[in-house]
Design brief:
alpha+beta; two-stranded antiparallel sheet; 166 residues; single chain
Length: 166
């Protein structure tokens, strides 16, 4: 552990951190849970270290996104070993509920830069498509990505849940 700008910072495996029970008000996983070897164990540990009514917020790629359909096997979050797990709305909600959380809200996320990465990933691996500059790709992708996000089929999911008893 180190102290940075007045904050006690732990950099490492949450399961090895040995935090006290009910030590935190909020836990935030930003595009990380899909990289962890045991997300269910992480969520159970998160439940243990959160205070009663503690909040967890999770952002993950959306395996049922329009992008995953459009790019098929070339959707970059499928790429192992970077992403060990893949979540859709049902899977992440079920895992949270089984770990002792009550879902408050699940919403579509939209990250235009990820669409551009998907497009580049697909083009590089297939040799197909228009070779557009990243700036033009971003300009084209913004309305498409936002529309998919608002429809719940964006390239990511954001989940808010509160700790309940197991």
């Amino acid at each position: 552990r180190t102290v940075k700008k007045g904050f006690d910072v732990f950099n490492g495996d949450l399961l090895a951190a040995d935090f006290e029970d009910s030590a935190f008000d909020v836990a935030y996983f930003n595009q990380t849970l899909e990289h962890m070897p045991s997300p269910r164990a992480i969520l159970r540990e998160t439940h243990r270290i959160l205070k009663p009514d503690g909040l967890v917020c999770i952002r993950v790629p959306n395996a049922s996104s329009m992008e995953s359909r459009w790019f098929g096997g070339y959707w970059f979050p499928w790429e192992a070993p970077r992403h060990l797990y893949h979540f859709d709305r049902s899977a992440i909600s079920d895992m949270l509920q089984r770990s002792g959380f009550r879902i408050l809200k699940v919403k579509g996320d939209f990250i235009p830069a990820n669409f551009v990465l998907n497009l580049q990933f697909w083009q590089e691996r297939t040799g197909k498509g228009l070779w557009l500059s990243p700036a033009i790709s971003r300009l084209i992708s913004f309305p498409l990505v936002f529309a998919c996000g608002y429809a719940g089929k964006g390239n990511g999911l954001v989940v808010f849940a509160v700790k309940e008893g197991l």
